[in-house]
Amino acid sequence: MKRMRCRPSLCGRFLCPGAAAAAGPGKPFPTPQAAWRALSTVSTRPNAAVPSPPAEYPAETVVLVTPSRDPLSSAKLAALHARLSLHPKFPVQTLARALIDQSAERDRFFNNSSLAFLGNTLLGYYGTEHFLCTYPRLPSVVLQAAMAASVGPRPLASIGREWGVESAFEPTPNVDAGLLQFKRLPPGTVVTGSLRPPRSQGVTDEEAMADFVRATFAGVYLHEGVAASKQFFRQHVLSRKLELDKLFNFVQPTRELSRLCAREGFDSPVARLLSETGRMTNTPVFIVGIYSGNECLGEGQGGSLNEARIKAAANVLKGWYLYRPFDTADVPSKTDVYPDATFKPTMIDSGEVIV
């Protein structure tokens, strides 16, 4: 291993001896793009000679060049590529770039900022069309909560940890290319609301891991195509269980149900006691049903008549908003994969009830 002096912001340009070899003797030092391309064509040997940086770069920091910086020589990166069952079209160089957060490397040609932006757009698009086509009556507030619970920073970070991705303690030049590299926030930093510090000062482990997952989705989309990215989304996002009925928070369910019945032309809802037990004990149970005419819309149980009535109204509203068409409609992105396929539009509801 040989020592080399360079600036920390330019370390990525000198981490591979193949970059200088690609330029050739007597030629100027290659650009960052050429150095990155050289990673996939020239192997790094433990005893290979390390080139000196150009004279125009002042010597500021001593860094150690290790063979593990080469994506093709990193065992961790190869194992991660295999665990995710990525196609051979997906190069390990892209996966290595997805692991470099912009807080660790400011050069946009080396960090995952552009890939994370594209991945965030794809995840938002696929998630929105899934929920809107599957549950056409879903209120906007519940839709936003479902999106946050599916493709938000916290669930994406959980997905990254389940993939077995490990984080580097500090983004130094000798860190293995298969580790997540980001600059950590100082202890005690407030990261909520408008007090969130700029990304150059550091990020949390959750934010860095979420951006890595977004960048990986973008890599699948760019290298493997639309069909593969949708399949990747179904395998890693839609396969996770999400209880939508627990995302509702009705403030006045009985009043909202009355407005809903009036709007749809149904008979006014009436609460009726169906059964009870232990009225004179400390733990009574009442079962109340909500009727519209002769049809029972839903039931609810509670320790008092009022509690059972409110729960019954809330259950009726959940049944209305969580309605799923018997014949599931096609999602709009179907035509992206099969341009000549027949598209069946989804149902568009009148919207949620405003109380």
TrEMBL record:
It comes from the Eukaryota. The keyword Mitochondrion applies. Its main location: mitochondrion. CDD domains: DSRM_MRPL3_like, RIBOc. SUPFAM superfamilies: dsRNA-binding domain-like, RNase III domain-like. It is found in: Mitochondrion. Residues 77-225 form the RNase III domain. This is Large ribosomal subunit protein mL44. It comes from Discina gigas. The gene is mrpl3.
